[in-house]
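Exercise: predict the fold of this chain.
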Amino acid sequence: MSAHSAPASGAATLLIVPEWHGQGGRRDLAARADEAVGLARAIALDVRHVHPLRLRQTRAATLLGSGQVDALKPVIEREQVALVVVDAALTAIQQRNLETAFETKVIDRTGLILEIFGERAATAEGRLQVELAHLDYQAGRLVRSWTHLERQRGGFGFLGGPGETQIEADRRMIRDRMARIRRQLDEARRTRGLQRGRRQKAPWPVIALVGYTNAGKSTLFNMLTKSDVMAADMLFATLDPAMREIRLPQIDKAILSDTVGFVSDLPTELIAAFRATLEEVTTADLIVHVRDMSHPDAEAQYEDVRAILTSLGVTEEAGEGAVERVVPQLELWNKIDLCDAEVRTVLEQRAETRDDVVILSALTGEGVDAARAALSARLTRDHQYREATLASEQGDALAWLHAHGQVVGHRTTTAGEIVDARLAPRDWDRFTALWPEVSVRPL
């Protein structure tokens, strides 16, 4: 059976959410279980039973203790479970041993996320990135599936079994395929670099929306751009990035980019594969971190997003010598409509003490105008006021100033057309390069 066959949703699923000393981190176990359920339902799995458990120690052979494995067998039989999802990273040996013990297919958190991405990727580049991550993951675990449980599925075959072709493929074939995909992705990266270069030659600033998955980025994107990008109460509703133009106060045009949502314990294979897509974040003029402040793990989600941004080299925390480019950031505290009055009051008081936070609801529109103003203020914060003296026949230079900045004054004198304008430093450099004969001085 092909690993790329059509999907059949609704597999009866047992979800195990383990936690052990030093592993749980900042997250509440119940909140982690809720997120794991959301991940499973993102590909329409039928979650029959959720089993959070705290482990005193992990076992090299099965991760779980033998008593815990035995206790789950009656649940699997009673609920007629066809798939067990372990919300943790499993080694190939642990996965195989659990499949033997449970007599059913077992996947881990990485496999589940890769399966979601495999189903959601819509563009050719997105599918190549997911396939590269999948091959990297599978290279170390060519595990024989339970053929009596195989189903016709899409994605990349984690839930239906890798299929005979994948089972028999040797690592050399996988490496060759990965090399071909990397070459294709390099070509796509070069194309995107050319497009980015054209955008940088244009005056339009680029704003990248980032945030934890399901934080409301796509809803906000649609609200700001009047677009219809898929926005749903679902983890990883957006996978392939979208870019649209928007207009902001004092800014005639900007480019808004909606990116894939981040998640805790994002598989390293995916971070590597999607780094090309995330280059849009590293080259943005402004990063807007959209946060779901109604979520019980909002602070832990914030730290997870910051960690990924740091790994991309766009924050101060990336460390001396590691920072590629520190990008200005603005936080939008979203879903305020879902917070109770007490929580909302606390958030409003916290936001008042900061100049990089706006409270809003992308769903109801509350605070969106304030967000637009904040985006504009952030983008124009380093702009400079200067006076340019133009000859009467230099209407093209005047039009350029209007198109690329904010003209705040214009008067005709015997010396020529005196224009007071506010532009980004790089735009003043471009203006003086285009019209070197024009006299420009600070106001």
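Check your answer against the key: The first helix runs from residue 29 to 41.
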